[in-house]
Write a structure and sequence with these properties.
DNA-binding; 5-stranded mixed beta sheet; Protein Yojf, Chain: A; Trna Endonuclease, Chain: A, domain 1; 8-stranded antiparallel beta sheet; homodimer; 291 residues; 22% helix
Chain lengths: 291, 291
DNA sequence: GCCTAGGTCCCGTTG
DNA sequence: CAACGGGGCCTAGGC
């Protein structure tokens, strides 16, 4: 089959490995873009291997439905007996093996792998080796139901309203959200055990140490904050005010909070986003008035 | 197209929404199983919607390559502009939106969602709503390159050599791996802050408190173990011997380990698996001699 | 390379 | 229902 014949071949369909193919003249149809869609249905293993090699070489997205076994060996090991799975190989060298249920892949390899397809003893073997940490994923494919190779045109930006970061940005943009007159001195301030999310002073000159959580604040965050306090001190005659900023307090954590002298300031992600939007608007207005 | 005509239709291919279809008589071919493979190539949005509804109803695996935008709203929110993506919907009601790169989906919804496909204003809208926590994922599909619905036959068992658990089992099966004469009293022993992995006595009658890590042991595990110790005591005249069992010690953690009086016993996952296999073999032999 | 922290983490178990 | 820990977690950022 000639991959370069843009106007005569749309879909190559080989049935049950018997070399039966369906060709369709497309000269009369508006099918620009379709020629980049090789789709094999029930190809022979050798046909599938050829297509995989071409797709891997071109770093296309490979989508395969096949019966296979899967072995993983590396940080630990795993074995999965034969069954039909959805196998995805992406252009950046990652691979996902999905079963018919569950959000997570049953086996996978993150991006940066060396992936190859080889014939072996009447089966098709797909190997994905990750150099560091050294680990390898091996699929022994017995039968391919479907194999498609795609080129995804996708330049869109992904925007996530990312919880903790947005809460931090909201506090930085509008420190009043913590309390009237609160001033920020630093954020992501390094202390030996980690980083203080926000660090500032109140109107009395006391040092405020803020730990932000997007989820209900529980014991771990209290411990974390107390740990940080060991390495911080207030100016002479002033106090250290440890404070947790979160949407709520976890169920059993209230007593520990009171006992440890940590303050709690409620801030929901929603409110944080609202603040950011307000500033984005005023930024826009500032920009407008500038022009 | 008649889905029930097992012997006359294999693949329905509709091109660019123009209703062009390719049919192939399969009466002469051995194609059992192929009829369960409806595959649409560049269908119209309405054709795709029909197929999606049928596939969702039948709880099949849906694999779609389409140009779409994606909105997520729930625990946080996200926006993704138009672009071509691989969309997977599984029978248990989870959905994955993958871009051409990266291991992880750009958007998703875990299993247990209510998923529906509807026509809307010349577009196809795919919605996945998760009841708790309440969150929703919305795909506005502008163009479908490919849509396949599959039924994956897969009853195989997945076996993972699961790090910490296997290390614990190895110690329980063969306590000598810790030291000669070590005897186990309990495991997963409850103390207020959590669970002690393994709890036992040495030949001198001292209490040994073991925390297992599959990764290099760092500061957090030292703290955790010291926390547990507060709630444990040795018999009169005996010592408490806190011990970390792990493949190695994290770089900076050695001094803290020495200072805190915690012992370290090296155990790699590999060795643990070897022990388990030895016992599996002896189990088999015991079974054989029994028969 | 190691280590730290966050994630729409997901996922199981337990209270 | 919430909370807790583990994961082949993955991923990004620092050192």
């Amino acid at each position: 089959m000639d991959r370069a014949s843009y106007h005569s071949v749309i879909v190559s369909v080989s049935l049950a490995g018997k070399g039966v193919s369906i060709y369709c003249s497309v000269s009369a149809l508006n099918l620009s873009g379709l020629t980049k869609l090789p789709v094999l249905i029930s190809p022979s293993l050798e046909e599938a291997r050829r297509e995989l090699v071409i797709g891997l070489e071109a770093r296309r997205l490979l989508v395969m439905v096949a019966s296979c076994t899967v072995e993983y060996s590396g940080r630990t090991g795993s074995h999965l007996g034969e069954g039909e799975r959805l196998v995805i190989v992406k252009g950046d060298g990652c691979i996902l093996v999905h079963r018919g249920r569950d959000y997570q892949p049953v086996n996978w390899q993150p991006s940066g792998c060396i992936i190859q397809a080889q014939a072996s003893n009447g089966t098709l073997v797909l190997k994905a080796v990750r150099p560091s940490p050294l680990e390898s994923l091996t699929l022994v494919v017995k039968d391919v139901q479907f194999l498609g190779t795609f080129l995804l045109q996708d330049d869109a930006e992904f925007v996530l309203h990312a919880s903790e970061e947005e809460m931090q940005r909201a506090i930085i943009l509008q420190p009043d959200v913590i309390e009237q007159g609160f001033k920020i001195l630093d954020f992501e301030k390094k202390v030996p055990p980690g980083f203080v999310d926000v660090y500032g002073v109140d109107t009395e000159g006391n040092t405020v140490v803020i730990e932000i959580k997007k989820d209900p604040a529980g014991f771990p965050v209290i411990k974390q904050l107390l740990e940080y306090l060991k390495y911080l001190q207030a100016p002479p005659g002033k106090k250290l005010r440890p404070m947790i900023v979160a949407p709520s307090i976890a169920k059993g954590a209230q007593p520990a909070l009171a006992k440890s002298g940590i303050e709690f300031k409620q801030l929901t992600l929603q409110k944080a986003v609202a603040i950011l939007q307000k500033y984005a608007r005023s930024d826009q207005q500032a920009l407008k008035s500038w022009l």
